[in-house]
Amino acid sequence: MKEPITKADITAAILLDDDTLVLFGAIDRALPAQGAVHLDGSVEGRYAGRSWADAEGERWFLGGIRVPGLAQMRPSRVELADEKGERLVLPRLSNVRTNPSHLVSALKGFQPGALAVALDFAIQLAASSKDGAENESDRIGRLLSGLAQEVSQPDGFAEVFGRFRDGSLMLQGWARSFRNGAQKILIEAEETAAYRATAGAFARPDLPPEASGVMAVLTDQTPLPTAIRRIHYRAAEGWRHLEIFEHRTILPDGVASAHVRDMLGNIQDAETRQKMSRIAASRYDGAETVSRLDIPVRTGLDMALRVPGAGLFVAGWLLDPTRQVRAVTLKGPGVAVRLDEGWSRLARRDVTEAFQHDGLFAGRMIPGQDQHGFTAFAAEPSGLPPGAEFHLELELADDRFAFLPLSCLPPAPEALRRMLSLVNLDSPSIDTLIARHVGPMLRTARSRSGALPSTGVHPMGRPVKAPRVSVILPVTDGREDVDLNIARLAIDPDFAETELLVVAAAGTHERLGGAVRQAAAFYRMAVTFVAAPDATDAFEAMAAALPHARGERVLTLSPSVLPTEKGWLAALERVSRKSGGPVMVSPTLLYEDHSIRFAGIMAVEGSDGVKTFERRFAGYPRDWLKEQDAATVDAAAPECALLPKDALVRALATMGSYMGADHKGLDLCLRLRALGGACVWLPRVTLVALDEQPRDAHADRWRRAGAMVDRWSFEDIWSARAAA
């Protein structure tokens, strides 16, 4: 390895953004075009460079250094290394500035002939900064604008502008030296930036012989035509620009695509004409065009669901027996995702039967090949407006395109469940789908739902002025027999000075309120009936009831848990008071045959280091238990647990997002412990927990998918907290 070269004089050092530093100065050797950069021998990044010799033979350079977080560093040693291992140590950097005009002034003062090279280099830096930097800065735009104003010469006028539906632009005018084909052009507006474009020239009899008409179609979202001041481009002889014609024409919305198609016949270069034809054909104008195709291709949607900030789920079918479709892409503002590269295909015999007698398809479909259905996901960037529009683009074999608008459902609970029912659980990539798409989408949707309020609060029975404990009984199914629960509590003296909150969640029977009122009056219990029709499980029901609970301690009690003896609440209270902190105390729960259902949950670490949570002694005979005294466990049973009200409120407020309730109990216990609390199991107190069959067994498919998502969500949340 050669010795580091140190002879370099830094004339200007400009920090363009948090990660990018531009250097200009003299150097005694040619600078490699790219390589690695080392700051103080440890922090690494990349650099790109340009170097040249002036008329006197002195060598100069421009270099761009990209290191994450560079703005917060003060390196004493900057070392560049090319691909051959040769190294160059730069002088210690001083007087680093943030105003790009200092770089423009330095170039003008020392190397005015290199301004065009500097603009080329700045565009290259802007592209890499846009791809890699998290914190965008307006300094790169100011640098581009400053260099363009110095080096760009007038060349013609832009006279016609049209805006496509995707936010990109077409422009038409005349110039002397606008190049044909694909290129980057610089649009000077409120912010100056480079954009990809394809341009073509055409003859105009009203122009001098050296000039020609020009039309350019841009492929990136661009500024509004009214904001554009100049359009710069690289010609053979240097940088040139179009001025904006004072009486320019701005085409109405939806006209740009048709205008480009009408002008294509005038484009002189055949290759450019073909490229522009393809670009124009790929521009979506808001209309459905698949049904107009004269080839055997049709598509339809069963469902499109969007979770703003997370992504979209699309389910439908594509009938393409002659393989005319090259690609299916979901497009929208800032989104272009190939669906056909990762979708799940499903059998759709109904689609085959619907088209088998259609003239376009008859004789072209192979019997038994019914894999026309698909489900697919697409992520979207944050910051898109809630009303953003999306569509499917079908790219066809003959360079044509067809479009299908998407009417996206909002992420309401029923829509999310329907989405889960359509997910192919048998796909070999189901774990990846859940981790990349389904899980994040559901987490985002559920996190925005917020607390579910109660819609009605009705005191019943005998009032209690200051209840010792608030008992929350969440009813989440169609049962009417809660009078049995009220009766069991009423005969126990422990519940004489308590209040019972019966929460009617989603799916409860309309006669539940009447049954509770009768039982409350008959047994002279202090009962509050809380209507929470949006709550879908016991935990959401608890959250809806807590604002109406007046006791300092709360007993969460499932309607399926029935006492077998009196005095058990007092036993739980003694343990709670003795602990002195926010503890969650649960008894032993038994199956109907008196075998053990719950005797504490403990974390068990496997050979791979992953922790799992196991219900201890589940299924063992009750007599097998020898413990009597309270014991600390990793998780209690929310089906029957006593804990401070404020601790439950805080734990529920931070609970993770889940579709079902299976992981919520464990999540609640772990959050309580994270808040400084503990979980305690009291072996000698026993209650019976009855088995309950789900009333909506037809929803088994979405529940299975939801359970897979919840498992991913739980592991993702708690593995992240463990690593923190």
TrEMBL record:
Keyword terms, alphabetized: Plasmid
SUPFAM superfamilies: Nucleotide-diphospho-sugar transferases
Domain of life: Bacteria
Name by which UniProt lists this protein: Glycosyltransferase 2-like domain-containing protein
